[in-house]
Amino acid sequence: MISLKNIFAGSYVYTALRILIGIIFIWASWDKILNPGNFADIIHNYRILPGALINPVAIILPCTEALCGILLITDIYTKGSALIIDIMMIVFIFLFIFNIYRGLDISCGCFTTSAHMEKGSQIMHIARDLLILIPGIMILFYSKKPVKHD
105 or 15: which carries more pLDDT confidence? Predict the structure, then answer.
């Protein structure tokens, strides 16, 4: 019997999703790595972290995104990278929801350190992050080896 697990596992779909998510995270990290001060300002605008943590997070988060992206593309520590990415996506989604609840409409800092963001775009960011989270969960939970039935 053919199952979703068999279609996904060991297939081009798994590889394509792994590479796609890896590219997305490398792309997302690029501007933040090049402009850590601007990214620190965006983190500050979220009004969640104490001041002493803003600069370390502005350095560590983009490097983590880039590293996980590279590891996904190269298929090294794939499950661990997918887990870290999934956790980041859940946190990002929560932060957007929390900011909507608080009435804050700030630049997300997702793919650029530009402070410009269209009003009301947080719902679109939540939808986008969910679309990134779903393949991340698939990568995490599905094996690369097809399931054999006797």
Answer: 15
CB atoms within 10 A of CB 2: 7
H helix runs in 11-121, sequence order: 12-34, 36-45, 51-74, 78-102
The residue assigned the tokens 């661990």 is 80
Compute the distance between CA of residue 87 and CA of residue 66 in angstroms, rounded to an integer. Answer: 15
Rounded Cα–Cα distance for residues 110 and 124 (Å)? 12
Give the residue among 144, 129, 135, 142 at the shortest CA–CA distance from 18: 135
| pTM recorded for the entire structure | 0.83
Tokens describing residue 18:
């792994």
Q: Which amino acid is at 41?
A: D
d(CA 84, CA 101): 26
Q: How far is it, in rounded angstroms, from Cα 140 to Cα 18?
A: 10
Query: For residues 18 and 78, is the Cβ–Cβ distance under 8 A?
Result: yes
Reported as a single tens digit per residue, the pLDDT across 7-21 is: 555 578 889 999 999
Nearest to 28 by CA among 39, 18, 37: 39
Asked if 132 and 111 touch (Cβ cutoff 8 Å), the reply is no
Here the tokens at position 146 are 């097809």
